[in-house]
Structure formats: structure tokens, C-alpha cells
Amino acid sequence: MLISYENKVALVTGAGQGIGLAAAQAFAEAGASVVLADVNEAAVCAAAAALVSAGRKAIAVHCDVTDDGQVAAMIDRTIKTYGRLDAAFNNAGIQTPQTPAAEMSNADFDRTITINLRGVWNCMKYEIPHMLKQGEGAIVNTSSQGGMTGFPGQAAYIASKHGVIGLTRTAALDYAQNGIRVNAICPGAIRTPMAEALLKGNTEIEAALVKSIPIGRLGKSEEIANAVLWLCSPWASFVLGHALVVDGGFTVW
């Protein structure tokens, strides 16, 4: 299945590395003009520059998704540069340290919810008005396999990812009649820099993790990117308010 994004504009947050970077690359390779946004300015600028050097259309924007002003400026830059916004992948997020629920600090809980959940809402708040003017658009929000399950020591992260699914479903209903489709992606254990930091090179931990995945391996960022491109494309035109789990079968157990 060949998905073309020629003459389309895609925005990806958390695009400096991992799943966000893979999605930005995939959108660009499919012909889209891509806005790569990340709080890590150096990383996102390097990523956009690499795409431009490869003949793709891309710009980098420094953006903290918890800051309304920065999100508004990101969307304004997108519209001023490319004139429209067809697809938005609200992917920026963090993982919190492994801590039992009652021992987690207020600061860690609030920071996780603010970035992972409010950040998604902040982005949609500024993306949707432009899509309404166009009469169409597609949004994908990053939840997690953890948005479908629980996990010890990850109360704030799991709560935030469950919240993303609820937010996604409600926004999907709010704008279904306006040509805007909102869905969520729920990645499983994907080999990203964030995952590597959690594993800390411990082969025993990785082996135990892999044992819990029926397909027998960690996922690749590109596999999530492919699912995101499909969700944003006309091929998924009847998919609305869905949380697509891409986890190698982890949640099937």
C-alpha cells in the first residue's frame, strides 16, 4: 500500500528522536512538507536539516508543548510557512522513574500529566481551528499500551496515557461532523532512546521484557510511524476515535 502525502502538510511533536523522528521521516519520504517540533532544539534542528539535505521539505520548531504561547507560535509558524495543516501527530511525552504510586512526588506526577496529557490538549486546541477552516484534517495522539493496562511503579505515566485515549475519543466526537478525524496510537515496547535509557543496557531486563511480547522482540520506531501515516491517510477514512494498539501482542495475553 503506497500512501502519498504530496501537497500535504504534517506536524510532528517530539520529533527530535525515537518515534517522533521516525514519523517525521516517513511523512517527508511520502511527500509531505513536515514541521518537526521538539523541546530539544539542537536535536530537532539537526533532524530537519538532514531531511532538507536529502531533498525533503521540512522545518524545525523549538516547542515546549506545555507552554500555550510556544504551541500557538508553532502552529502559527506552520500556517505561515506552508499555508495549511493536514496531519498532526501529537507525540511529545516523557516516562517517569519507577516509583510506587504513594511514594511519587507531587512534582513528578504533575510534570508527567502536564507533558503527556495537557500537552496533547494544548496542541489540539491550536491545531483544530485551522483544520475547521479547511474543512478537513487528521490528528493522531500518542498514548501507549499502558493506556490499555496498568503497570507497577508507573502511576502518573499510566494515568496520563489512559487520559490521552479519553481525550482523543471525546475530541473525535466533537469534530466528527467537521471533516476532522482524531485517533490515538498505543505503542508497545519500542526500541527508542527513551526505552534504552530505562533498560540501561541490562540484557536480563530486556530478555524478560521480550518474553512478555508474543511476537518475540521489541518494536521498531518505523513500525509505529507506518501506523501513524495510515491513520492520517484516506485509507483510514472511516476510523474515528480509535486507540490503535501496536504492541506485538502484549495486551492480547
Main pleated-sheet profile: 7 strands, parallel
List the helices and strands in order. EHEHEHEHEHEHHHE
Tell me which CATH architecture applies here. 3-Layer(aba) Sandwich
Overall domain count: 1
Question: Major sheet: order of its strands?
Answer: 3-2-1-4-5-6-7
Q: What is the SS-derived class?
A: alpha/beta
Number of strands: 7
**Contiguous helical run count:** 8
**CA-CA gap between termini:** 30 Å
Radius of gyration of CA atoms, rounded to a whole number: 17 Å
Average pLDDT works out at 96
Under CATH at level 1, the class stands as Alpha Beta
Helix content, binned percent:
40-55%
Per CATH, the superfamily is NAD(P)-binding Rossmann-like Domain
| CATH T-level fold name | Rossmann fold
The low-pLDDT segments are none
Family: Belongs to the short-chain dehydrogenases/reductases (SDR) family.
Organism: Candidatus Desulfovibrio kirbyi
Pfam families: adh_short_C2
GO molecular function: oxidoreductase activity
Short description:
Keywords: NAD, Oxidoreductase. This protein has helices spanning 18-29, 41-53, 68-82, 106-134, 155-175, 193-199, 203-211, 221-232; strands at residues 9-13, 33-38, 57-62, 87-90, 137-142, 180-187, 243-246.
